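User: Show me a protein chain along with its predicted structure.
Assistant: Here is one chain, sequence first, then structure tokens.
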Amino acid sequence: MIFGSFHFIESLESNKRLQKIRRLIKWNGIAELPFKINTFEGGVFLNPEFPYQLNDFFHFDAERKIVVFMSGNIYNRKEFLSSFGFPKETTNPALISKMFLSRGPAFVENLNGDFAICIYLPETKEVFLFRDHIGIQPLVYAIDNDQLFFSTDITGLCRAFFEQETIFMPPLLSNKIAVNHLLTLNPKVEKLAPGHYLHFSSNQKKIVKYWFPEKIKTNYNLRYDELIDTAQTLLLDAVAIRCDKNFRAGAHLSGGIDSSLIAAIARKNYPNQNSFWGFSWSPDGEAPKGVADDERVLIREIAELNNIKVAFSNPTNNELIHYLHNYYHNLGYFHEEKTMENAVKEKVNLLFSGWGGNEFLSKFDTGIDTDLLLEFRFKKFFEKNPLNKPRKLAQTLFYFILLPAIGVLDYPMRKAYRESSYYFKKAYMKNDRETIRKFFFYRSRRERHLNFIYNYFISERTEIQYHIGFRKGIEFRYPLLDKRIIEFMLQVPSHLMVRKELDRVIMRDLSKDWLPESVWNRKSFMDPVLIETTKIKVRELGKLLGDEIEHWKENPDLYFVDFDLLRNDVERARKNPDSKKIDPLYTNVLFFKMLHEFTKTYRSVPSKEG
């Protein structure tokens, strides 16, 4: 976790602001290593669970007058060490210093990693902030009276600029309405977009885009055997370069292809680690009544085949209540918080994740059908959408080709958004049109991939997991978000991704040597046990929390909630507990409880303290 500031003239106000940032970011048991060079000042918070030293974050070349300050990892550092002739013990900040001096800001284009980098040039009084291509590492900044402040703690920096006004809540509502994922809780604080850098000097503040995946051309000469060979090489290397034997590693594990394949490959890269844990969101114990399909059977098969130990997750109601109160830190990722607690128990401090597979290497239907029609590949199209299944064919033509192409949101999604924001006051039900456009509208699979990149919802999840993980002493690795895999998928023509009615054909073929057939040949990837268990717990907690609604109503930050409607529905639910509206009602009760607790924590430090 890093933070810092730069100002052209020493100022008591900027020093007070920096001290406030330091206090808001600091966490119990985490050491701080501060530094100051002229008017550039900051610090690194070190969690002792990580095998890092200060020189992994900070480098100052007094002779060549450059400061490099960073968080994260560079996974292709070996190729740069070799090309520049540097010794292998060169730290990442020292390497970046030399690359910047040699190539200028363009050095970042060829990096492959998860990073937030700050470069300060004392002689010219310039600062550069760089965020990695995909946005794995968070990075936010604020400019106040020609003073630059930045941090990898998004909420901490927002609080530092909070002046007791009403909290700007839309960034917390992305699971209810479509919001701009680059927004923060404080309009004074901005996220640096993934694939961009900020150049700050006395005469300019310039945001520069340095990654251009949209320029990649489709390779129509690619054969399927070449596709699989290249994808396999990239995937194996993407996992291997993210393995660090200084950590004790584990992985997310489900019955789905993405996380289970990543877990299996990661396990092979740690042959000398006695136990390699797979952490599942699925609960242990008996399945709820009426649930026949049990994903945990598949998880155990995967684990046995790959010598992985399984830790299932089943938080108690008391733990869930604690998570509700801790929304400031977990932002609703309860399953993730419990998973990390299980990881801490097993002394695991590095977790591999399959996040990002659905959007790229494991891409399923959307956009593929459009490409097949526009490229006149009718044979492939009708193999995938057979004429003897007219209902499926009609749905594909209408919902997945026509409506996305003309920019019309289908009725089921409009209904879903209305229902999810049902307890919002009408004026606050509006969805961000640009977010809707990028998430739902497309005229090709290629455009779909690019929208995934530029909608920034992928980085929203990695930001949250970064913050939860840092405090618990756990780092994440996302091999399926390796930029080489993303760039390769933009070259793949859609007709190679079709095998009759089967989806995710690339990932299924890559999985055959690693996973049981029951997994790679699976048609549905739902987890009914987890879904039904979660419903039961939500109902139990929702009933308990219904009496608090009148108290939440007094919270000015919950200005967008229709509490009268919410209270009336809770009263009806108590009289008719079998209503079909019970589950969405109590889901909202828990959500508003979390928001209420968040605002209390957010406001807990007076904004004018120095």
